[in-house]
């Protein structure tokens, strides 16, 4: 008898802390529900001090098990009274009008830290999260290190999931920008992946802040499942959100979805995962 196969839908979504560029909340639960995914890698999940995080709230309402890793701390601003119908002007850390302030790895400019908007903003942590409806067998975190120009400390969040008697390894990431030296993080991830995935079916997904061709070069042996522009959400010109597959994983269909409230569009892939005959017959 040949190997059996299991279908799994994997999605990635940068939620931008559950607000738009002006700090206006949107319905992240509805956005994640619309993905129809078995596994979701969620970047920029916000966890306020003293309260449940965004990923936990989404998981609790939609029936996902949730694994999180805090990447950095800062503050989340209230809706900006100057908001208009645009998402927001070009992001600039020197300004005081944006929604998300991150200062755990690098101090903000004095004029920002002294502003009324910053002082009234909600303290908390920015997290990388992985939500799964597949049974969770194990989890681990791979520290990718800190880059001098980055405002958070990057890591890969790894889960080992039961898939029809076999195993699927999913690696969630939110990489730094190329201008901050993200190729060092890609090199660290490339070195770690053989020990994490081996020859098992595996997926790497997340906001990689890098276009598809250099991502493929940086992670040899991994195949791009999704091709399409994902950023910025309102008029996308680049793909920086990716799902890559490895081992006995086939892509049955993949797409960049429509705007979902954040500055990134979600990406989704329907995958066929090979299950060894010895496992499937148990």
Order of helices and strands: EHEHEEHHEEEEHEHEEEEH
Radius of gyration: 19 Å
Shape call: globular
Poorly predicted parts = none
Terminal-residue CA separation: 13 Å
Helix fraction bin: 10-25%
Q: How much strand content do the residues show?
A: 35-45%
Number of domains: 1
CATH topology: the name is Deoxyribonuclease I, Chain A
Q: In the CATH hierarchy, what is the architecture at level 2?
A: 4-Layer Sandwich
Query: What is the subunit arrangement here?
Result: single chain
How many helices? The count is 7
Mean pLDDT: 94
By helix and strand content, what is the structural category? alpha+beta
Q: Total number of β-strand segments?
A: 13
Strand order of the largest sheet: 4-3-5-2-1-13-12
State the major sheet. Answer: 7 strands, mixed
Textual characterization of the structure:
With 282 residues, this protein is α+β, with helices and mostly antiparallel strands. The protein has one domain: Deoxyribonuclease I, Chain A, CATH 3.60.10.10. Helix content is 17%, strand content 38%. The protein is built from 7 helices and 13 strands. The chain has helices spanning 28-33, 54-62, 110-113, 116-119, 183-197, 212-218, 277-280, and strands at residues 4-14, 39-48, 65-76, 100-102, 122-132, 136-145, 154-163, 166-174, 202-207, 223-224, 241-246, 249-256, 267-275. It has a 7-stranded mixed beta sheet with strand order 4-3-5-2-1-13-12. The model has no long low-confidence stretch (mean pLDDT 94).
């Amino acid at each position: 008898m040949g190997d059996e196969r299991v279908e799994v839908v994997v999605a990635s979504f940068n939620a931008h802390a559950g607000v738009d560029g002006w700090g206006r909340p949107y319905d992240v639960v509805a956005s994640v529900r619309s993905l129809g995914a078995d596994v979701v890698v969620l970047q920029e999940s916000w966890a306020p001090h003293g309260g449940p995080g965004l990923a936990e709230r989404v998981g609790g309402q939609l029936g996902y098990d949730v694994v999180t890793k805090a990447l950095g701390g800062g503050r989340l601003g209230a809706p900006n009274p100057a908001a208009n119908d645009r998402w927001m002007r070009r992001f600039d850390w020197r300004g005081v009008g944006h929604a998300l302030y991150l200062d755990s790895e690098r101090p903000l400019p004095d004029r920002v830290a002294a502003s009324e908007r910053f002082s009234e903003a909600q303290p908390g942590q920015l997290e990388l999260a992985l939500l799964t409806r597949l049974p969770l067998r194990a989890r681990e975190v791979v520290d990718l290190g800190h880059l001098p120009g980055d405002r958070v400390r990057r890591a890969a969040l790894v889960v080992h999931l039961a898939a029809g008697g076999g195993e699927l390894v999913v690696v969630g990431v939110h990489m730094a920008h190329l201008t901050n030296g993200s190729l060092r993080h890609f090199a660290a991830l490339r070195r770690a992946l053989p020990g994490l995935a081996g020859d098992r079916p595996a997926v790497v997904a997340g906001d990689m802040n890098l276009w598809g061709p250099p991502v493929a070069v940086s992670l040899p042996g991994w195949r791009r499942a999704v091709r399409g522009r994902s950023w910025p959400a309102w008029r996308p010109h680049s793909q920086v959100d990716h799902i890559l597959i490895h081992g006995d994983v086939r892509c049955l269909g993949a797409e960049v979805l429509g705007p979902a409230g954040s500055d990134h569009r979600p990406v989704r892939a329907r995958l066929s995962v090979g299950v060894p005959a010895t496992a499937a017959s148990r």
